[in-house]
Every structure is written in structure tokens, then in C-alpha cells.
Design goal:
By secondary structure, this protein is α/β, with parallel strands linked by helices. It is built from ten helices and six strands, in the order βαααααβαβαβαβαβα. The chain has two domains: about 140 residues, Rossmann fold (3-Layer(aba) Sandwich); about 60 residues, DNA polymerase, domain 1. The radius of gyration is 17 Å and the shape is globular.
Length: about 220
């Protein structure tokens, strides 16, 4: 059991690092290269799903699945061009360090892995506060399945009722709700407050800076 007995689990893209629109543009280009005209607003709503799930969600079950790997690889290569300059959202690192000081076990739950995850962690610049990272590579099903959050709780050694999950998409809120944790939404990923609340958010904040300034009377008090 973790010493703190409580865990703060964070999604990364759109929650701690301002990358959602970079993902939208690079997915759009990857689809375009494969001959698919997918509207950017539809891609934006799908960001947060694991790559294979995102392609299936946007192209449908009757697509040519032989294209899936190539589309995902194209997105990965296009997005990789930004690794040296991914922008952290306001006070993201400060929020994680404050929670760590307050006794929370901080765990990241993300579909990113490898060089992408390293780039995201460099952007956040709070490695001293992060206890563990639950990657999509570690589970059979990505969000909105509960497995990524459950895996994060296992790494923290904390039961669901002693945890809070912070994310920016409906997929995050559904995953956290299914895992039985209290969910907090942030608006900095571009998803409307109503959508987050309807998907399970108990509280919604503008961004990490807003959450940090509201810690005293919020779910992470």
C-alpha cells in the first residue's frame, strides 16, 4: 500500500500538455495521405482514444483495416516533429508538485509511450512528483474502458474510493467512472463542460492553473 493512501491520477494530452490540436492536425493529415477526408471537428472529439480505436471510431467498422497500421504510423511520424516543443499547460508541473507535497501519489494514465511519453514528461517538468506512469501498452483496452485507470490505481496501491482522476475528454470521464474513481474534468482540451459532466465529471476546471488555485475546496483538497 502506498504511504499516502490516496492517488491523483492524471491524463496527459490536453490535461497537462497542450497537444490536442496538434493531434487533430496530424491525424487529419495522416487520414488525408491515406485517401480519407475526415473533418477536424470529428477528429477532435475522438482524441483521447488509443490509435486503433480512434481510426475505427472515425472510419467505421466497414473500413479497409489493412490501412490502420499505416495511418497510425503516419500520425506518429507527423506528431513526432513536435516532440522538442510540446507546450505544458499553465501550472501543470506546479500542480503535480503541490499534490505530491500534500501527500498524494501522482500517477499518469496515458495512451502515449516511448519517445512520445518522454517528450510529454519533459514538457511537464515535474518528474520528481510523478510516482508512476500507466501506459496504454500496459493494458488490453484503452479509455473509455476502465483498465488504464485501474492499472494506475494498482501502481499507486490505492483503492478507487481513495483516488481522483483528472482528464479532459469524455473518454477520460467514462473510464474513471467505470473504474469507480471520482472524476475531475478540465476544459483546456477543448471539450465542453456539459459533455464532461454528462460523462461523469464531478467538478470541472478551466486548466491545471485553475485546479491548483482551487485545491482548498475541491476534490483534491
Amino acid at each position: 500500500m502506498a504511504k499516502s493512501g490516496r492517488a491523483a491520477v492524471f491524463d496527459v494530452d490536453g490535461t497537462l500538455v497542450d497537444t490536442n490540436h496538434l493531434h487533430v492536425v496530424t491525424w487529419w493529415e495522416a487520414f488525408r495521405q491515406a485517401g480519407h477526408d475526415v473533418p477536424m471537428h470529428a477528429i477532435h472529439r475522438a482524441v483521447g482514444l488509443a490509435s486503433t480505436d480512434l481510426v475505427a471510431h472515425l472510419l467505421g467498422e466497414d473500413r479497409d483495416t489493412d490501412q490502420d497500421a499505416g495511418i497510425s504510423a503516419a500520425h506518429k511520424a507527423l506528431y513526432g516533429q513536435y516532440f522538442d516543443r510540446l507546450p505544458a499547460l499553465p501550472e501543470a508541473g506546479a500542480l503535480l508538485r503541490r499534490l505530491h507535497r500534500d501527500g498524494w501519489t501522482v500517477v499518469l494514465a496515458t495512451s502515449a509511450g516511448g519517445a512520445e511519453l518522454s517528450a510529454l514528461r519533459r514538457a511537464i517538468d515535474a518528474d520528481d512528483a510523478i510516482t508512476a506512469t500507466a501506459s496504454a501498452d500496459d493494458v488490453d483496452a484503452g479509455k473509455p474502458a476502465p483498465e488504464p485507470v485501474e492499472h494506475a490505481l494498482g501502481l499507486a496501491g490505492v483503492p478507487a474510493e481513495r483516488a481522483v482522476f483528472v482528464g479532459d475528454t469524455v473518454w477520460d470521464m467514462r473510464a474513471g467512472s467505470r473504474a469507480g474513481v471520482r472524476c475531475v474534468g478540465v476544459l483546456c482540451g477543448g471539450i465542453p463542460r456539459t459533455d464532461l459532466e454528462q460523462s461523469g465529471a464531478d467538478a470541472v476546471y478551466a486548466d491545471p492553473a485553475h485546479l491548483l488555485s482551487s485545491l482548498r475546496d475541491g476534490p483534491l483538497a
